[in-house]
Fold Pimeloyl-ACP methyl ester carboxylesterase.
Amino acid sequence: MERVQLNGADVAYDVRGSGTPVVFIHGAILSDGFVPAIEQTAIAENFQIVHYRRRGYAGSSRAAAGMTMQEWADDSIALLNHLGIASAHVAGHSFGAGIALQMAIDAPGRVRKLALLEPPLGSLVASGGQFAQWMATVREIYDSGDKITATDMVLAGAYGPDYRRFTDGALPAGAFERAVSDIDTYFQVELGAMLRWDITTEGLKDIRHSVLSMRGSDTLPVFLEGADLLQQWIPEIDTVSIPCASHDLPGRNPAAVATGLVEFFTT
């Protein structure tokens, strides 16, 4: 990956292919979570792929405590500026989908179409409180210093107990070990950013982009309810269910995700 200074942070990124640019924003914990979908032939042959590692992940600079969704969105916009890209399709997964959503709100002219794969809308849905209580229990394990167990609990809870079958087989080698190394970003920065995120249903109603909402058929209630909320409030949106997938839908069923993205971005 190449490196660039964005808003005072050193960020690793990769650009490949040709055609209309698509920015892929990865989710929490697994910085390579989008890789299986990005590497599908349908994606590689149709778009210029912009894939970067957010602050706090892999070789990029650490994320500062108190960082907001708006600041992460600013990094994405700064990367487009660096690459000389006036506007791009944007696809985000999990926490990255929250960033993509914020990017569309803050800089609507920079986003062509918007693909959201299960953004964290816990503050707006009924099951958000239950999800937060479970996460508080996992936080106790993390605070005790057991990062391996905490990482395992978060991934198993969000992706299913058999998640290692997919992370070890579909993601680049060492994905779990990188997740353990990056888990501080999740607990020390991202959870706080989600709690402080000022997203509202009125804000969703103001989005005028064409939006694709993807959700796993077997995902958690908090993400199913989040997809229903997006469908209710965003004016121009289509929702698709990715079969045999949980919250790790880009890794568990990358072909279906890639097909859906290509159809959406090319029509």
User: Anything to note?
Assistant: The mean pLDDT is 94. The first strand starts at residue 2 and ends at 6.
